[in-house]
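Input sequence (379 aa), recorded before submission:
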Amino acid sequence: MFDVRAMGTVDGGPEVPAWLTAFWLVGPYSFATMLTVLHMSAAESAAGGGHDGEGNGGRRLWLELAVLGGMCCFQCGMALWAPALRSTAGRLWALGALLAAAVPALALSAPGVRVMMTLEALMNGLCRGVALLGSDALRGRSFAQRLGYMVIFHDVTTAQPCAGAAERRAHAQRIAASLSVWVPTAAVALAALLTVLPPPAAAVAAALPPATNPIVGVTVVSSVLRSALGIVFFYSFLVVIDGAYGGTLLLAGIGAEPAMDAPYRSRSFGEFWGRRWDRAMQSILFVAAYRPARALGAGRGGAALATFVLSAAVHTCGVAVGGASTAECGSMFAFFLVQAGFVLIEAAVESPAGWLVTMGCISLSAPLFALPLLAVCGL
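Predicted structure, token format:
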């Protein structure tokens, strides 16, 4: 169901240099800061000089920047102190990480920043932070390694130092070849979403006569096409982001396998979700849900279900703080429950579903995932 060997261990992985940890700590927070400043500036301009019409936009901006700084300092503090999870201090840090996940939704105004920082707090701050505190071996490593484990959204536990120039060159060529394909693909898919298939206009539907209203059929076809383009865009985007992580690790002499291992070649649901789709994300879910569930006595099926439920909760929180409707949040949560059903049924019959059934079922259920995400992104 899940390839445990492919997930690595929390304790493993080569030493991450301090400059690389600093880069991936500062980078996302700097990007969030830039988006916050742009959002607040636009809001202040629209309000005629003040975000709330009384000149308080500047104070609000500084408050949000302080929130971002506080979240960054909290992650650093958790990695620096790193008390054992079984201790009172460790439990308090874990509780703080859980509470910190609610901060972006309460304190940040830019929807994109809320989504980005909520996922950062849930996946890196909470899931990986708790895994760090629960690992005596990882807590015994350097501060740069501990913090790098939390902030580098890549499965560094399965990475290995490059044996020589030839291996480093091979990794570089793989990353370059991947980017040369998926950067243009992402651009084309995004352009199509923005121009050829924009979101259906409810006003157009309302203006048509009810008896002869063709918008329902148009909307269904448009939604299916938009979902397909959305999956292509999001997949391409994730591959590009993974290339950025892999490229910087390569600069440090670390060769990391791609997070996306051609999931469209999967011949079973277990292979798709356990070994090929976003292995960086799967490694986080593995240490946060699958392994603890197994430790508590759950079977492989129960642990897999716990993993999908956690993934559903994280993704649903992401779209919820981005402004998704109740129906869209329900759709996102349902997508992962449906995938759990596919995996558990396949395991029960003890036979791989085959490529056609696997990719067909995942493709048919993909709109449950893609459409809420497109709506939150404004696409």
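Checked by second reader. Residues 17-151 form one domain.
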